[in-house]
């Protein structure tokens, strides 16, 4: 099998993995909307349920990244930008676009559900759930439009203050716990598939470097 055939197979399998994860995420969102139909009402603020790690971010220039190639993801506001030989986060996190591309065409935030070792740049908020699971927080933002908190005419931005100010009606702890037991197997599969996808992407990058 030549390198081009391998390359085509990688692309095909990555597309299959992506579709599988899209279906799992759609299922999780549907369950969230069923369990929490009134989540966007109420007088509490989502900031009370977010742990924010933006202070630990450290952007690396393209030149710096080229000098330290490796296996760890360097992640921007919307996607993986590079692979480097060091990381500064390890675990399950939610990345939410902070500036540049911060919302999609329908007004929903740009989100990335990340697990494992990685290095985020300074264009995405780095979040985890506080008294809620990070998966629950991810699903909350998947169904919450954020156009009202976006600022900037030329370069759009979502500040920590504005992000934290979104209103919410937080469910009781028992309901949150019951919901987590339902979605945990879904997100476990999402993490497994995403890990496979990133492994394939790394192989693709290496093949491209050899071909061109």
Q: What's the N-to-C terminus distance?
A: 18 Å
Largest sheet: 6 strands, mixed
Strand content: 15-25%
pLDDT < 50 runs, ≥5 residues: none
Explain briefly what this protein structure is.
The chain is α+β, with helices and mostly antiparallel strands.
Report on the structure:
By secondary structure, the chain is of the alpha+beta class. It is 43% helix and 21% strand. The chain has five helices and eight strands. The strands form two sheets. The protein has a six-stranded mixed beta sheet with strand order 2-7-5-6-3-4. A two-stranded antiparallel ribbon has the order 1-8. Strand 3 and strand 4 form a beta hairpin. The radius of gyration is 18 Å and the shape is globular.
Features:
alpha+beta; about 210 residues; 6-stranded mixed sheet; two-stranded antiparallel ribbon
Spell out the blueprint of helices and strands.
Blueprint: H1 3-35, E1 44-45, E2 50-52, H2 62-66, E3 69-75, E4 80-84, E5 89-97, E6 111-120, E7 124-129, H3 134-142, H4 160-164, E8 167-168, H5 173-211
Parallel strand pairs: 3-6
Antiparallel strand pairs: 1-8, 2-7, 3-4, 5-6, 5-7
């Amino acid at each position: 099998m030549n390198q081009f055939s391998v390359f085509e197979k990688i692309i095909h399998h990555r597309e299959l993995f992506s579709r599988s994860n899209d279906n799992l995420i759609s299922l999780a969102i549907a369950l969230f909307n069923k369990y929490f139909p009134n989540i966007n009402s109420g007088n509490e603020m989502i900031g009370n349920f977010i742990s924010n790690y933006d202070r630990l971010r450290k952007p690396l220039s393209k030149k710096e990244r080229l000098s330290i190639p490796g296996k760890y993801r360097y992640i921007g506001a919307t996607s993986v930008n590079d692979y480097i030989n060091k990381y500064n986060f390890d675990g399950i996190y939610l990345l939410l676009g902070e500036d540049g591309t911060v919302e999609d065409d329908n007004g929903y935030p740009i989100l990335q559900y990340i697990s494992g070792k990685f290095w985020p740049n300074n264009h995405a908020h780095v979040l985890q759930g506080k008294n809620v699971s990070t998966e629950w927080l991810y699903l909350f933002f998947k169904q919450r439009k954020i156009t009202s908190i976006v600022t900037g005419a030329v370069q759009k931005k979502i500040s920590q203050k504005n992000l934290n100010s979104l209103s919410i009606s937080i469910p009781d702890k028992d309901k949150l716990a019951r919901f987590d037991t339902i979605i945990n197997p879904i997100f476990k599969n999402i993490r497994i598939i995403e890990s496979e996808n990133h492994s394939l992407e790394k192989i693709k990058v290496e093949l491209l470097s050899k071909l061109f």
